[in-house]
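Review form for a predicted model. The reviewer records the input and the model, then writes brief findings.
Reviewer: anonymous (R2)
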Amino acid sequence: MPRPADPNAKIDLLRAAEEVFVECGVDHAKIEEITGRAGHSKGSFYLHFGSKEDAFRQIVETMLARLAACLEESEALYAENISDIGEYLEHWRAKDLEMFDFIWGNRRVMRLMLEGGGSSQFGYLIDQFAQRSREQAKRALALGIRQGLYRAELDVEIASMMLAGGYDRVAREIVKQERKPDLAGMLAAVQRFCLVGLAAPTLAGFIDSQVNNGGNKKRHAGIHHKSSERKSPENSNQERRTRNVRRSPGS
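Model under review:
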């Protein structure tokens, strides 16, 4: 009678594969090392995976599926009318914290994933995830505009590119840390930057006037442009020549 398959074999192999991939990268990982750590045979490995690359792909797909679920849950924030802005902002931070707690808890694999698995053939994985994040940001921004949360003239293409790139950078920095950072404080600062930006009110008003007028220079209260009041070197020289002529003998 054949021996029944171990129902935990695939889980054991994936855990062992994570360890080996993190230590060696996908290119240099050995299936024998994976099976040895998992306590299973090579036959068991090939029963579940076509290759070590297939095992890595399944690990990454599991990670991306969890992150995608966090993104989808965050997007649900915009599904209904926002009646309590404070609650909305708190929920946003809570979903971000949930996602980045997951990233921290799986930082070794996440770092490997962000590096393309230590293999040139997996570089496309992070590009795919980055594009997915940007598409989610575009949908969230468009919904936010319809809810009246964001400016009607907001350029969704540019804003989504900046948001997705910013969150990607935060994730890359987190997975490099030896100690867990203050994720709640960091993400609160990220949220404030997303909503308020860099500019103080005076500068923000000036920038808006530039954008609204197609980039033409315009005076704005609190910001004085005296360049038009200054005399150019050519005009100053001309005035001096005129004065000299008036003072010259016989004039």
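Findings: Residues 244 and 250 are 12 Å apart (CA to CA).
Further findings: The domain at 64-212 is CATH 1.10.357.10 (Tetracycline Repressor; domain 2).
Recommendation: see findings above.
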